[in-house]
Amino acid sequence: MSDLKKSEFTLQKIFEILPIGLWFADKNGNLLKGNRAGVDIWGAEPQVGMGEYKVFKARRIPSMEEVKDGDWALNHTINEGMTVKDELLETDSFDGKKKIILNYTAPIKNENNEILGAIVVNQDVTGYIQSEEKLRKSETLLKETQKISKIGGWEWNVERDVMYWTDEVYAIHGLIYDERENSSKKLIAQSIECYREQDRDSSKYSSACI
Length: 210
Prior knowledge:
This protein is of the alpha+beta class and 210 residues long. It folds into two domains: 122 residues, PAS domain (Beta-Lactamase, 2-Layer Sandwich); 68 residues, no CATH class. The protein has six helices and ten strands. Strand 5 and strand 6 form a beta hairpin. This is histidine kinase.
């Protein structure tokens, strides 16, 4: 096998095993090929021209505005030479599944700065976004529960000498939350002052409390 063939073989293997979706388009915006991850993300490998991008369905997050025909990132990359980074989309895949992806497009240019084609990179972040949303809901529920029951919580890492208060602890003590003071020496001193003087020895109280 010649060196050129070896290089082509290696590039093809890299293309196939990449864990993110990768698509190639020619200078006219015709989608030529997608790798395995890209096909999995979209549920198909539509080899369509620029005038047929409407077969794709997606909405931009957080506005949830539908991506209109002619306004896809690849349209702007081919027509304007624009690089589009980290576009967050909710997609309707061809297999009927909804997914959340990060979309990236960039032009491929020659030495004369002429556009030869473009690449499209898709990363499926559905699980990550859903986990973030669950965490946000849990934090909101915890804050509301603490507010209603007038119970707060704090944590003090004695070794690192840093402390964290929940919002309700600030409210209980009539203090205004200041992100800059959370974990500060001032906050630790205020916390210790909440104890009776004879109980202020760090060996006598826990490093976490509600």
